[in-house]
Write a structure and sequence with these properties.
By secondary structure, the protein is mainly beta. Helices cover 15% and strands 38% of the residues. The strands form 3 sheets. Strands 1, 2, 3, 4, 5, 6, 7, 8, 9, 10, 13 and 14 form a 12-stranded antiparallel sheet that branches. α2 packs antiparallel against α3 and α3 runs antiparallel to α4.
Length: 314
C-alpha cells in the first residue's frame, strides 16, 4: 500500500464516519429571549413591570448526555444541563435586581444533585422543553430551579430523532421560571413568566467546517484548500458535505478501510497492482451523484489519483 498524506489518519487513531459514537462532550449554548410579563418573589411580592421589560435565558447543554428514559412522545436526560442563567431587564435595558441568585453553575452551586432536561412532543398537546438543576448553594442551602418552554403557534422542537433540537430564530412560545433557595417554607422563592420571541443556538464546531459537532461525522477533517494525493494537487476544491466530511476525508476513509482488510491469501507472493482501490474509484461517482462535484472535477480527481499511484512506483 502506498503511503499518503491522508493515510496518516490511521496513525493518529482518528475514527472516520463514526457519527455520535465518540466519547466527548458536545456543548450547545441556547439563548432564549422575550417579553417579561410577570416577576415576583416570596420576599417582595410582584414586581411592577413596565411594557418592554425583557428576559434573557442562557442554557449550556450536553448533547451526548445519556437518555435516561423515553417514550414515543417524551425524552428525559439526567445529566444534560451544564449551567443556566436567567437575567431580567426593565424597559430601559437596566438589569432588575433579585433577592435570589439567577446563575446556576458549579460556582454558585458547588454541590449539584441533578441537572436534567425533558422534552415532550406529543402531537396532541403543546410541545415542551424543561431544564432543571437542583443542589446546594455556596452557603449549603437548597437550590432548586426550573426553566420551561411551551409551544404556542409553532413547533418548538424541530428534530427529536436524537437529542431533541430546539427551534431557532423567531419563535413564538411561552416561558416560565421558578427557583426555591432554602427549605420550603423558610427559604425565598421566585417565579417569572413571559413570551419568547427569539431563540439562538450556538453549536460547537471543533474543526470550523460549518457543521456542528453533533452532526459532524468527520470531527477532525482534512482541510486542504484543494484535494491533494501525496504531492499531486488535483486542483479540485476540497468541498465539505452536509455530514461534515471533506472530499479528502472520503479518500482517507478508503485508505483506513484498506488497512483493515485481512492479509492476502497469496501469502508472500503479492500480485502487482498500483492503481486506485475500488473504494477510491467509487468516490468520484458518489460525489457526482450527490451534486458536490461536476463531470470535469471528477475527471481531474481521477487523473490526479492515478498520477499519484503511478508516481509511487518509482
Amino acid at each position: 500500500m502506498k503511503v499518503s498524506l491522508y493515510s496518516m489518519i490511521a496513525g493518529c487513531g482518528l475514527a472516520l464516519f463514526t457519527g455520535l459514537g465518540q466519547a466527548q462532550t458536545l456543548t450547545d449554548t441556547v439563548t432564549i429571549e422575550g417579553e417579561l410579563t410577570q416577576l415576583e418573589n416570596s420576599f417582595q411580592g410582584p414586581a411592577q413591570l413596565a411594557p418592554g421589560s425583557r428576559f434573557v435565558v442562557t442554557i449550556e447543554q450536553d448533547r451526548t448526555a445519556t437518555e435516561s428514559s423515553a417514550t414515543a412522545t417524551m425524552k428525559f436526560y439526567e445529566d444534560a444541563v451544564l449551567q443556566m442563567e436567567v437575567m431580567f431587564y426593565d424597559d430601559q435595558g437596566v438589569p432588575i435586581s433579585t433577592p435570589v441568585v439567577t446563575t446556576y453553575s458549579s460556582t454558585t452551586m458547588p454541590s449539584i444533585d441533578s441537572r436534567t432536561a425533558q422534552f415532550l412532543f406529543d402531537p396532541q398537546v403543546a410541545e415542551e422543553a424543561t431544564y432543571a438543576m437542583q443542589g446546594m448553594d455556596i452557603n449549603g442551602r437548597n437550590m432548586d430551579t426550573t426553566i420551561n418552554l411551551s409551544e404556542t403557534t409553532q413547533t418548538l422542537l424541530t428534530d427529536t430523532s436524537n437529542y431533541p433540537a430546539i427551534a431557532e430564530g423567531a419563535v413564538d412560545a411561552l416561558f416560565s421560571f421558578y427557583v426555591m433557595n432554602g427549605d420550603e417554607g423558610r427559604g425565598i422563592s421566585m417565579s417569572a413568566e413571559g413570551n419568547v420571541d427569539t431563540i439562538t443556538v450556538v453549536f460547537v464546531d471543533t474543526d470550523n467546517d460549518g457543521v456542528p459537532d453533533y452532526l459532524d461525522q468527520c470531527a477532525a477533517s482534512l482541510e486542504s484548500e484543494t484535494v491533494m494525493f501525496d504531492w499531486v494537487d488535483s486542483g479540485v476544491t476540497n468541498y465539505t458535505d452536509a455530514s461534515g466530511c471533506t472530499i479528502m476525508d472520503r479518500y482517507a476513509a478508503c485508505e483506513a478501510d484498506e488497512a483493515q482488510q485481512p492479509s492476502s491469501p497469496w501469502g508472500w507472493f503479492q500480485p502487482v497492482y498500483s492503481g486506485p482501490s475500488y473504494c477510491e474509484s467509487q468516490v468520484v461517482y458518489q460525489l457526482q451523484d450527490e451534486g458536490i462535484i461536476d463531470y470535469s472535477e471528477g475527471r481531474m480527481l481521477r487523473n490526479a489519483l492515478r498520477l499519484s499511484h503511478d508516481s509511487s512506483m518509482f
